Amino acid sequence: MFDKDKKIIFSGIQPSGDFTIANYFGAIRNWVLLQNDYNSIFCVVDLHAITVPQEPAVLRRRSIECAAMILASGIDPEKSLLFFQSSVSAHSELCWLLNCNSYMGEMARMTQYKEKSVKQGDTIRVGLFDYPVLMAADILLYNTDIVPVGDDQTQHVELARNIAERFNHNYSPTFVVPEGYYGKAGSRIMSLANPEKKMSKSDENTNAFILMKDKRDVIMNKFKRAVTDSETEVYYDKEKKKGISNLLEIYSCAKGITIPEAEAECRGMSYAEFKECVGTAVADCLDPIQVRFEALMNDKPALEKILMDSADAARSIANKTLRKVQKKIGFYQFGSK
Ligand code: TYM
């Protein structure tokens, strides 16, 4: 399936909530475009999801729904691998080996951890602290060249690069040093309820995000309530007009046009008209994805086959890397002289 002359992309997404349009515009949409030019590996990272408490039945349902949503968005199983992280045990194993080559200091600097630990205090899990090393393992197992993600993952991709470079230096060249890839627009979609905060699938306020599963009337309502400003004019200014600029960015992503084009289309509209326009564009963009999602969920055996076949293929790549790393570290090699 993979072409030796093509570079490799890897990316992952957590089944810690239903996907939002930020996941779609910031990541999945880019995966769909890139899969034509790269050997592409995508992973529903369920091991990452358990760094915070999860209800087992909900995690199980969400995981399969997340996989269906990625396929419904246009990931083609003929071109790309798509599997559950927990199906390939090399992810956990390499994580341990990399843990022993990572520093507490560099981990403690991760902003996502710092933000979350403020909220969770003493009951924060060790896994949440260690999460970026697991992410490094995900990436490094597949000789990944490019990691297409949203802006919020920059620091984690940087850590994966540092870990790879350190390992290569301490032992001998082993890992490809990956690079992050960020889309031109949509790499940081903000909350509709508070445009100072990024849109997140785990936000407690359901008006803060649009889910890829949301129906048209829900979408229209959420945009109607979106926080803007006390002016009346629609134009793009990320500092002064965070809410409106975010809506313009969402509109440009949904329509597949640039931000200046979106601005030109919407200039002169009242805020109410503009919000309705953004809502319609997003609902139109999600409509066909939702139809495909339903069809995929109605054929579970076919869906499971895609995930299992992909996991088999992923396992064989990942295990090769794992064996190489084990050998370099000095684990006993049976049968060697
Ligand atoms: P996760 O599950 O939080 O998000 C999945 C993808 O969506 C992007 N994203 C956003 N993009 C734009 N605006 C936003 N508000 C927004 N919120 C989320 C994320 O940047 C991401 O690309 N640690 C990762 C999952 C992961 C991973 C990996 C990614 C695990 N292993 C290996 C790449 C490579 C995460 O929590 O993503």
Highlighted features:
54% helix, binds tryptophanyl-5'AMP, Tyrosyl-Transfer RNA Synthetase, Rossmann fold, 337 residues, 13 helices, two-stranded parallel sheet, three-stranded parallel β-sheet, mainly alpha
Structure characterization notes:
The chain has 2 domains: 8-186 and 299-329, Rossmann fold; 206-294, Tyrosyl-Transfer RNA Synthetase (Orthogonal Bundle), CATH 1.10.240. The chain contains 13 helices and 5 strands. The chain has helices spanning 21-34, 46-49, 56-72, 90-99, 104-108, 111-120, 126-140, 154-170, 216-225, 242-255, 259-266, 271-297, 300-329; strands at residues 8-13, 39-44, 80-84, 146-148, 179-181. The strands form 2 sheets. The chain has a 3-stranded parallel β-sheet. The chain has a two-stranded parallel ribbon with strand order 4-5. β1, α1 (21-34) and β2 (39-44) form a beta-alpha-beta unit. It is globular. The chain starts with 7 loop residues before the first strand and ends in an 8-residue tail after the last helix. Tryptophanyl-5'AMP (TYM) binds next to β1, α1 and α7.
Please outline what is shown here.
The protein has 337 residues and is mainly α. The chain is built from 13 helices and five strands. Bound molecules: tryptophanyl-5'AMP.
How does the major sheet shape up? 3 strands, parallel
- Strand arrangement within the widest β-sheet reads 1-2-3
Q: What is the string of helix and strand elements?
A: EHEHHEHHHHEHEHHHHH
Give start-end ranges of low-pLDDT stretches.
none
Write the layout of secondary structure elements.
Layout: E1 8-13, H1 21-34, E2 39-44, H2 46-49, H3 56-72, E3 80-84, H4 90-99, H5 104-108, H6 111-120, H7 126-140, E4 146-148, H8 154-170, E5 179-181, H9 216-225, H10 242-255, H11 259-266, H12 271-297, H13 300-329
Parallel strand pairs: 1-2, 2-3, 4-5
Helix pairs in contact: 3-12, 4-7, 4-13, 7-8, 9-12, 10-11, 10-12
The structure holds tryptophanyl-5'AMP (TYM).
